[in-house]
User: What shape does this take?
Amino acid sequence: MSKRDLKKYLANLSKEQLEEQLIELYEKFSPVKVYYDFVFNPKEEKLLQEAKLKISNEYFPVQKGRKKPKSKMRRSVAQKFIKHFIVLGVDPYVVVNLMLYNIEIAQTYASENTIIQELFFKSMLNSFEQATQYAVANGVFSDFKPRFLAISEEAKRLKWKNKAQFEAILERL
Assistant: This one.
């Protein structure tokens, strides 16, 4: 069904029928419930803290029992939260904050551990580029510029192989 057909269909429904359909959608589909829960009660700070906790657990998992848990370092966990925040319409400041936090926690991990996977460095560079593009597109880059610069400097300090690419991204702006 096209958007135009949907509009035509909805125009023929009474107010009560529209309300019934929305309530049915709310009850039946979890993403609809999540969206409306956020729209009517946008606890962005709580969402941000929950996301940060789950991302940090990817690098610094909470120890359960005697065995030390292994870090997973999955970029996909952060990307899932970032995408979810964007779909919900979370404030761009919160989204950029999370994007940068993801890279910063990875750099903290890298400063304490030897990382040999090339994919890790490529992934962090991709995250950095996406964060700069999103920040610029939403007009918030200048507010986060010190953090972007610090990430680039930390890539240099940690002697990442792609450190020059971090600098190049910032120079293009």
Notes: The first helix runs from residue 3 to 11. The chain has a mean pLDDT of 91. DSSP finds nine helices and no strands in the chain.
